[in-house]
Write a structure and sequence with these properties.
The chain has 263 residues and is an alpha+beta fold. The protein folds into two domains: 147 residues, Rossmann fold (3-Layer(aba) Sandwich); 97 residues, Bacterial fluorinating enzyme like (Elongation Factor Tu (Ef-tu), domain 3, Beta Barrel), CATH 2.40.30.90. It has seven helices and 15 strands. Strands 8, 9, 10, 11, 12, 13, 14 and 15 form an eight-stranded antiparallel beta sheet that branches. Strands 2-1-3-5-4-6-7 form a seven-stranded mixed beta sheet, with helices on both faces. Helix 1 packs parallel to helix 4. The longest helix is centred in the middle third of the chain and has 14 residues.
């Protein structure tokens, strides 16, 4: 019985890198289903991978082998990490991309070592093919990962998202992601925002502009008007009905906005 392999990379789809990784997985675990979570993480953007992984965790198969390859340090001394969290296994470079997993409890860590099909010296620039994909395939087909891992020493690298900062009676938020529609997600989740966001009038200040009121969906406001809402991942987000908040407000990850009480 093979486990599904979930891929998250910054390889894009123009080049063959993602496809070659899938070929490597198929070579060693031909019965495994491969799920493309995304290959459009911005190049070398570890923080963007953290956001996507964090928002996707509740939806991954319980027995998934999750392989994350956003690896600006490929070919250097950075370690290759295998983490077991519950019934899932995560494989990635030790550079912070697994932060949402590492922040959980009961996580077991190992370092991936060269073994049989795992050949880090084959290419210094494509460990997705030569290290991470083979390791994911071996786990997916049922091999004991202790055969090709060693005890993990020290602390793993983490890349936590910015924290929400109180500012008087307001909250200073950070944009942590934008999607292809131009919706801009913040680091404030619904569970952290309640009760005052849902029981009192609020407005988002973006530079000199304001978005007032909390809506359920885009069509709650007229076309081309901005909207403040909780997105499908439970993050407070800014959108535009039929348009792009990222373009309208010149927002990108790392930008700060202010959530205030009042109309």
């Amino acid at each position: 019985m093979s486990r599904p392999v979930v891929l998250l990379t910054d390889f894009g789809t123009r080049d063959p890198f993602a496809g070659i990784m899938k070929c490597a997985i198929h070579r060693h675990a031909p019965r495994s289903t491969v799920i493309d979570l995304s290959h459009d993480i911005p190049p070398q953007d570890v923080r963007a991978a953290v956001v996507v992984l964090e928002d996707s965790l509740p939806h991954l198969p319980d027995d998934a082998v999750v392989c994350v390859v956003v690896d600006p340090g490929v070919g250097t001394g950075r370690r290759a990490l295998l983490a077991v969290s519950g019934t899932r296994t995560f494989i990635a470079p030790d550079n912070g991309v697994l932060t949402p997993v590492l922040q959980g409890s009961g996580v077991s860590l190992r370092t991936i070592a060269a073994f049989g099909p795992i050949a880090p010296d084959r290419s210094a620039t494509f460990h997705g093919r030569d290290v991470f994909a083979p390791a994911a395939a071996l786990v997916a087909r049922g091999d004991d990962h202790l055969r090709f891992t060693t005890p993990f020493e020290g602390s793993p690298v983490t890349a936590p998202l910015p924290e929400v900062r109180p500012e008087g009676s307001a909250l200073r938020l950070t944009i942590v992601g934008t999607d292809r529609f131009g919706n801009c997600a913040t680091n404030l989740r619904r569970s952290e925002a309640e009760p005052w966001v849902t029981t009192e009038p609020v407005r988002m200040s973006i530079g000199r502009e304001h978005v007032a009121g909390l809506s359920r969906t885009y069509a709650d406001v007229p076309p081309e008007r901005p909207v403040l809402y909780f997105d499908s991942a439970g993050r407070l987000a800014i959108g535009v009905n039929g348009g792009s908040a990222a373009q309208r407000f010149s927002l990108s990850p790392g930008a700060e906005v202010l959530l205030e009480r009042g109309d």
